[in-house]
Amino acid sequence: MIRAILCILCAAIFWSGEVRAQAGRSVALVVSVGDGHARADAIQAQLQVVGTETLRGIDPNNAELRSILTRFAAEALNAEAAVIYLDTPVVLFDGREFVLPASGALRRSSDLFTRAIPLSAFARATELAAVGGAVLVVAGAPPDTAPPGIDRVTTAPEPAPGLSPILIAAASTTDTVVREIAAATRVETVELGAILDRIADNPDITLSTPVRQPILLRAAPPDPVLAAIGVSQSDAAPAEEPAPAETPEPEIVLTLEELIVLERGLTRADRRNVQAGLRREGFYSGFIDGILGPQSRSAITAYQTALGETPTGYLTPSQIDALR
Questions:
Q1: Rounded Cα–Cα distance for residues 202 and 187 (Å)
Q2: Partner of 166 for a Cys bridge, out of 64, 85, 208, 269, CB 3.0 to 4.6 A?
Q3: First vs last Cα of the chain: how many Å apart?
Q4: pLDDT digit string, tens, across residues 186-235
Q5: Contact 289, 275 (CB under 8 A)
Q6: Which residues pair with 93 in a beta bridge?
Q7: Radius of gyration of the chain measured on its C-alpha atoms
Q8: Taking a C-beta distance cutoff of 8 angstroms, is the pair 32, 40 a contact?
Q9: 261 CB contacts (<8 Å, ≥6 apart)?
Q10: Domains of the chain (ranges plus CATH)?
Q11: Integer Cα distance of 162 and 123 in angstroms
Q12: Entry pTM
């Protein structure tokens, strides 16, 4: 099963059309199973504040969780930093840790190899990012009906080559995790390793290994060269005289069917630009992947509503231009 997961992650490398990390881009996967949805929502909200693109999974079954992990691995490959937060049952069997999805009924211990995912697969996915990442786990208890020999994970695993750091916390310590990430949103530079070190100061939280190098989720914006010579960003170049405003031509009103056809004609790059524009305007926090799914559709609707225009969920030509 571990070999199969590795094959999935390798396939994600070829599935991702771009192999170079986008500068400054950080991505996160947030998954909750059982009673941890509110905790996971709080973590996701804090990650979004620092500009991290997030993918959310709520009570995914085995197939759904594998699909989510594959998609995330492809995005991590095209990012500088990657974070996974798991609020799920995590069990130990035969010296290996497994993440249980929803409806992961276990009749025999061997069912773990087909109905669960090794925790190491998540750590390999975050390690695909250019600088690296980490996995934060609030480890829930195994089902009451779990076969003998399956134990709850309470401490972080030993470090291993090719795996990012793994932090293991009990549900009772989640406030510490949320508090430290929330505190990080109030400073300009957000470094993942420093956050993990502060969280791991709690005696009920363990970290498999320290972060090897700085992993920035958000960097301070000032230009260090200009700052060193005492030149402000505004003084770096003279302001140009604004060009005379052109009178826009009235936009042709398109039907919903025509707007749908228009969207189908957009290239993948066009759709990425739309998502990036929606994110810039504060309406979208998901992956910039060119897939206009439910999260993108909701963002488009909110954007149109804010403009005072008809919220169809499908962009008009002028709205597409404005978001570029």
A1: 22
A2: 208
A3: 43
A4: 888 888 999 999 999 988 899 999 888 888 888 766 555 545 555 544 45
A5: yes
A6: 96
A7: 22
A8: yes
A9: none
A10: 17-218 (3.40.50.1460), 256-323 (1.10.101)
A11: 8
A12: 0.71
